[in-house]
Amino acid sequence: MSLNLCVLPDVKPDENAITISHVRAYVIKSKEVEETGGGFADCHSQAEGHWILGTDKWPIANPMSYYEKYKARRSSWGIDAIGSVIVEIELTNGIKGIGISIGGEPACYIIEKHFSRFLEGQDPLNIEYLWDVMWRSSINYGRKGLTIQSISAIDLALWDCAGKLRNEPVYKLLGGKTKDCLPCYATCYDPLAAKNLGFKGAKFPLPYGPADGDQGMMKNIERIKQIRESVGPDFPLMIDCYMSLTVSYTLKLLELIKPFNIKWLEEHLPPDQYSGYAEVKKRNPTTILLTCGEHEYTRWGFKLLLDNNCADLLQPDVTWCGGITEARRIVALASAYDIPIIPHGSSIYSYHLQYAFPNLPMSEFLIMSSDSSSIVPYFGDLFTDEPLPKDGWIHLDANKPGFGVTINKNNLRRPYNRDEKVI
Fold first, then answer.
1. What is the CATH number of domain 20-45+80-167?
2. Catalytic residue among 268, 344, 352, 395
3. Per-residue pLDDT tens digits for 118-158
4. What are the residue ranges in the chain where pLDDT is below 70?
5. By the 8 A CB rule, do 159 and 97 touch?
6. Model pLDDT for residues 162-175, shown as the tens digit of each residue
7. Within a 13 Å sphere around the CA of 35, how many CA atoms are in the beta-carbon half?
8. What is this structure's pTM?
9. Domain range list for the chain
10. Is 114 a catalytic residue?
């Protein structure tokens, strides 16, 4: 029996409310600009030679490592093929909010041709309602991946608008701060450089996977041993496997890396292998933590991870998993299981979430300089004032409303420029 007594009436803005006049979706104007500009919203859109694509000396294990043609560079199979999407939401009072994700022109199409109908003319503060209608209207073709990334970019733009309307940073809208600043670990090629830059720990990519056999496993151990010796016995180290391993290979790897004081092993299996993650966690022969979630979407995906006891901590990407609106649900859900959250990347968009909730103990910062030896903005040239870590800490400015950054629109192109009518 249903509890509903009737169908709810349309949600309309309150009288004299500031509303959404325009929704615009942009990509970077060319692949060359995206690569030379630091990737923008897609950290993998980099020029040849960048460490994040894999190097001649050390490749990066990934789901395509089974095929010789695609082993050497992740760009060879198109990790960077989709590219950035940037959403600008303009309000009737002239305020503009910015949200980003991966999605490129396909995401622009979804945003401009489908989701814009739910947004223009609406109150930008009705974020829960707007998220719900976008989610429900795209279930038939969405639920994960590109569609949720499109919703994420819109959602982040709405939160940016909300902060600017209230003249407060987003973390204050989420309940205020639970910490004065954020400790950061670095994801990089060279953990020693990260240590020298003041980061509180470092994560590096696993070079080889199951297709490389016993020789590849030994090269993995060689690399891990080399890194541990370079940073000393106590500096926290983590390993990113990027969806590349199997259950049996992971268990063997865990056994072999026992001597090297590794903090966690990340995303060792493809994201839909819930039973495999549960099995590895159950049979883990070490005290090394097991993590995943970077490529999971929405509260329902994370509930599967939690219910199946798949991980010791979870790593949603705020720009992919459904935006701030869905990320805070994931945070609340994980807190009920006493599982901490350490978001993947996301820079400013995760920093505000981390400020606001106590079960997000630290932040990830990807060192996006080509050789991973110096700090540059995670989003490249996309913003003019992205906050950067200093001595391993991120500080947010309480006087900057919204997400506190300024978009650089010089390199943007709008592929689906609809006839714009102010509502």
1. 3.30.390.10
2. 344
3. 999 999 999 999 999 999 999 999 999 999 999 999 999 99
4. 420-423
5. yes
6. 999 999 999 999 99
7. 13
8. 0.97
9. 20-45+80-167, 173-394
10. no
